[in-house]
Amino acid sequence: MKYTRLTKEQFEELHQEFINFLATQSITAAEWESIKKDKPEVAEEELDIFSDLVWEGVLDKVEYLEHFSANQMFLFNITSIQINLIAVKIEKDDIDIRTPAGYQWLQKNLMDDSVNLYTSSKVLKEDRNKDIFALIQQGAVITKGDLYRYFDTVVNES
Question: Matching Pfam families, A to Z (predicted)?
Answer without folding.
Answer: DUF6495
